[in-house]
Design brief:
A seven-stranded mixed beta sheet has the order 1-2-3-4-5-7-10, with helices on both faces. By secondary structure, it is of the alpha/beta class. α1 runs parallel beside α2 and α5 crosses α6. It has two domains: 205 residues, 2-enoyl-CoA Hydratase, Chain A, domain 1 (Alpha-Beta Complex), CATH 3.90.226.10; 47 residues, Lyase 2-enoyl-coa Hydratase, Chain  A, domain 2 (Orthogonal Bundle), CATH 1.10.12. The structure holds 3-methylmercaptopropionate-CoA (MMPA-CoA) (1HE). 3-methylmercaptopropionate-CoA (MMPA-CoA) (1HE) binds next to β6 and α4.
């Protein structure tokens, strides 16, 4: 697989390493000396990166350089922040992570080592999480005397439930990779060092879907899950009609009916 570096502005994001291989972008958090702690500039660069990805990119992978995915909020920036700038800081994270969750393309997180605090908030803004066996999850905000501020209270309970998040935050409990899989934090656990390769392979597959299908899954599914059943079913019918009326859907359906498309078969080990 050939990796090319990213065009234009993306090359100037010094806290990220962005490479693009055809339809898949690989975005690496590139602050390994600080365990990829999320400083203001790093959050801003993530935001810029997702807004600026070229149109040809149809799926992205986020991973972390060094021994850990991400150590969360850069605690050195927090020490002297007043209330107003605290709210604005949290809203800055929200804007950046919304650009990931509700952007144009699906994002797969490739996890290893520490996925803690804001690192777990970042991972939970992605659409699929792949962990390797070294991965562990924690929410040390309770121990640090703070609260989540990067969307964690909205996103993490939607993955694993309020009771489990309460336990992690109050007791400092840490989940290992298998526990994270069991509670829904990740969708895959792979051997040590293989999460990026697995995430890239999934991203190549996702990128082959019709863009409108991926868009519907990203944008309609979580919103429908938040709606009442009656509203959800109505939203679903609108989304279904939009998706199936696109030319791409029509040609994919014709391809199946004419025997030119793959069948759904049992997974092989
Ligand atoms: C940091 C940070 C950080 C490392 N902010 N500088 N997050 C936490 O409470 C997790 C804090 N970090 C750790 O528990 C550990 O650093 C790790 C388990 C992630 C990694 O341990 P290790 O032994 O590999 O590295 P280290 O020696 O602890 O750290 C290496 C350097 O990174 C060191 O700096 P140095 O100048 O002494 O070399 C650390 O100070 C620095 N570093 N983590 C700042 N987080 C929007 S709200 C979100 C709220 C939160 O995320 S709270 C959770 C914060």
């Amino acid at each position: 697989m050939t990796h090319t570096s990213a065009p234009g502005l993306l090359n100037h994001l010094d806290l990220l390493q962005v490479s693009i291989d055809g339809v898949v972008a690989h975005i690496r958090l590139n602050r390994p000396a600080k365990r990829n702690a999320l400083s203001d500039p790093l959050i801003q660069q993530l935001h810029t990166c997702f807004i600026q990805l070229p149109d040809a990119v149809r799926c992205a992978v986020i991973s972390g350089e060094g021994q850990h995915f991400c150590a969360g909020l850069d605690l050195s920036e927090l020490v002297e922040r007043d209330i107003h700038s605290g709210v604005l800081h949290s809203r800055m994270w929200h804007a950046a992570f919304d650009a990931i969750q509700f952007g144009r393309i699906p994002v797969v997180a490739a996890l290893h080592g520490a996925v803690v605090g804001g690192g777990l908030e970042l991972a939970s803004a992605c659409h699929i999480r792949v962990a390797d066996t070294t991965t562990y999850y924690g929410l040390p905000e309770g121990q640090r005397g703070i609260f989540v501020g990067g969307g964690g209270s909205a996103r993490i309970p939607r993955l694993m439930g309020v009771a489990r998040m309460t336990d992690l935050m109050m007791t400092g409990r840490v989940y290992d990779a298998d526990e994270g899989l069991a509670v829904g934090l990740s969708q895959y656990v792979v051997p040590e060092g293989e999460s990026v390769a697995k995430a890239l392979a999934l991203a190549q597959r996702i990128a082959q879907n019709a863009p409108m299908s991926n868009f519907a899954v990203m944008h309609a599914l979580p919103r429908i899950a938040d709606q009442s059943q009656s509203e959800g079913l109505f939203t679903e019918s609108l989304m279904a009609a939009v998706a199936e009326s696109t030319p791409e859907a029509q040609s994919r359906l014709r391809a199946f009916l004419e025997g030119r498309a793959g069948k759904v078969v049992k997974a092989t080990a």
